[in-house]
Amino acid sequence: MDKIPFLYDEEGLPYMIESYKRNHQIILSENFVRCAEKKLRSDFEIKSKLKVSKRVQMSTSPNGSGVFDIASGVTKIPYGIWIANNWNQVEVAWKSKSGRVYTMGDSDIDCNDIEFWFEGIDPALYLKQLYPKEGLPFKLKPLSFELVITRICHDCVIEMHFKNDLQQNHDQIIDQIDTCIDTFNQKSEKAKKFVGVVHNWKRNVKNNQVLVYEFDLGSAELIFFKQLLHFLSDLDCFSKVEIC
């Protein structure tokens, strides 16, 4: 397991199990917690674009009782996500691929069968809580355009407003931006410190004035924006860029 625990650490696991039994009347198995830790960590980091750290962790106990949906086979329990002294309400959900209904007390769990995920993750809010004075968790050199950050999430849209004298023949600019994204992916895959890859993107030009990119950021970390924004600035083609 990673050095920074998300849901639990090994030393605290026996106390966590006892706490669930005493305070929530829930029988909790070690195998259930270990499967949940790994898969919830991955789901959170992909959806939020934040790494688990001492300032980004999950509540070790639920905030209420669970609900099982017979039709979908999904169990949900409310939990909290702790971001820099702020508690945020989310739901932890799980179901199986096989159709088996797992409870938190089951010890004979097939981690390849059970799926865990979060519902209610709010990347933009967490980013503001973690970096209240900045829109992004890194510094940018002066940009050649006005930067507006409305929200950042897994499915991201960037609107790039062309300067008045650059509202024709956009294909070359699009090709350059696509190459920038491809280069980011290739470098990340080859680097020792993998920072994820952008899975998919599509683009269109609105009214011959605004170039719109729609991203599925996939596993790409927020550092992707730093590289992209600096690249867009160097192009010197835009008057305003909005991440929304």
Question: Key terms for this structure?
Answer:
elongated, alpha+beta, 244 residues, five-stranded antiparallel sheet, 5 helices, five-stranded mixed sheet
Query: Secondary-structure element order, as H and E?
Result: HHEEEEEHEEHEEHE
Radius of gyration: 21 Å
Please give the alpha-carbon distance between the first and last residues: 34 Å
| Helix percent band | 25-40%
Q: What is the 3D shape?
A: elongated
What does this structure look like?
The protein is 30% helix and 27% strand. The protein is built from 5 helices and 10 strands; from the N terminus they run ααβββββαββαββαβ. The protein has helices spanning 13-24, 30-48, 123-130, 171-190, 223-235, and strands at residues 56-58, 67-69, 74-83, 86-96, 114-119, 146-149, 155-162, 200-206, 210-216, 238-243. Strand 8 and strand 9 (210-216) form a beta hairpin. The longest helix has 20 residues, at 171-190. The radius of gyration is 21 Å and the shape is elongated. The two termini are 34 Å apart.
